[in-house]
Amino acid sequence: MNSKKKKIFGASLLALSLLTLGACGNNEEEATEDFSIEDRYELDASTPAWKLDTKEDNKLTWYINADWLQLEFGEDMTTAKIKEDLNLDVDIVTGDDTKLNTMFAGGDMPDIITLTDSTSTTAKKADTWAYPLTELAEKYDPFFNEVAKEQTMNWFQLEDGKTYGYPNFSNTTEDYEDGIMPVNTNFIIRSDVYEALGNPSIGTPEEFRDVMQQIKDKYPELEPFGFNPVGNDVGSLGDVLQDFIGVPLEDENGEFYNRNLDEDYLTWLKTINEVYRDGNISDDSFSDDGPTFDEKIKSGNYATLFVNGVSGFGGHLQTFMNNNPGVEYIAIDGPQSTEGNQIKLNQTGLSGWMVNYITKESTDPAKAIQLFTYLLSDEGQILTKYGIEGETFEYNEDGLIEMLPEITKLKEEKPEEYSKKYRLSEILFFNHDRANTLKVPDEKGPLTQLQEWGNGKLYPHYVVENVNPDQGTAEARSYDAIKTNWHTSLISMIRSKSEKEFDSNLEAYEKFLDDNNWDDIVKIQNEKMATNKEKLSLSEE
Length: 541
What we know:
Layout lengths: L2 H22 L3 H5 L25 E7 L12 H10 L1 E7 L2 H10 L5 E4 L5 H4 L1 H4 L3 H8 L3 H4 L2 H6 L9 E3 L5 H6 L6 E6 H6 L8 H14 L4 E5 L11 H6 L18 H15 L12 H10 L2 E7 L5 H10 L5 E4 L22 E4 L6 H12 L1 H9 L6 E3 L5 E3 L1 H9 L1 H8 L25 H6 L20 H21 L4 H17 L2 H21 L3
Helix pairs in contact: 1-4, 7-17, 12-14, 15-16, 17-18, 19-20, 22-23
């Protein structure tokens, strides 16, 4: 069976399995009426149920739809502590979409399911196969409502007004206002280059082009300007650059705005094209893969670099610092809006990443919701991110967490041993950025100044989260084609040999939009934006 037929078969199988589940499990009351905690504990809204439950030798099966994940529950410090605190053993099973579909079709459901796509058909049909979390909390663990974020719960409501899944790294409006998340996008420059050029500004297109030429003249061995690899997507030159120069998320009527055609953004793309035509962007930048890009960062090959996902390059930046004492990459303001818009960088929004559900086939829904509550609480957040007091960290006089030096040393020198022994930040299915505030800030490292530069520059993009057409629809197929076309169009524009060729490539992209149902796609995006605004208003009432 070829790959296309496999996808069609898989989609049909999942649809059939979901319909089957829906036919037999729509009544939550019937689903749990035979399950009782009467002989185990009495509900207490002020106390987590896991501290009250007297039942021993509990076991749950937890399926995680991520076949790259490898975890053995109880073999490391983190999961051993969970096992001890909750009197709970967990059989962790991982797989891919095919395994997930087969599991649904066969009816052999686990107690807990973690998905990696909150917009998938499976997630949208959660009311047919999962319990509403608020109802489980009411019956078995009201303390869940103390640790779950109201805005996140509202965001994940399905059409019936109930919430079935809870994500990790769901950042609320409060989180953005409190500044608990570090920026993950920076325009960086080698400090020696920056100082030698007199700490120049590159905020305007003219300044940017001029400084790139100065770098080429003074440092011919360096690439003046680099960016994330563009092999499979547009790297940092698409919506990331748009955020950096503050391109609006919606038009003046509050509707969907095609940011790719924003005049401010196009001005900067034309500037980058001019820098390319000046010979100050290497052709290799359009063919370099991830490992090659990593090596260039380690060696300091780029004089300046516009990078997204900078937290993942901390080790490479550290290597460069270690090998070049007194020289480091520093963040500067970089390109700025030609129209006066303020920078509005994105971070993880309300949708988070992985989403966790308790299935209607759960053998012990009480213990399952207890596990959710435990991992969402400060106790669970500290354990899964920092470990155990006295074993991996201590509290300082200000009540903040300081990792023990021997733990930090093991992490740096023997990362595999560290991972296997502690699994810190690996049981991340309910992890939250707010836990960052519990720890003493790291000593100055390669990311410190980069993150400090980003203070106040994050802006929630909630209104445009998950607004693209649903997979399997004609509009989704058109959207995927347009997305692929934008990738090739953007690279073609940047590599254009003349301004006329740039304009021609841009016109071809605009025509592709017209030829591929763009108006129908925008209609769907507007409808979903309206739904997002309704969900956001729930938290403001």
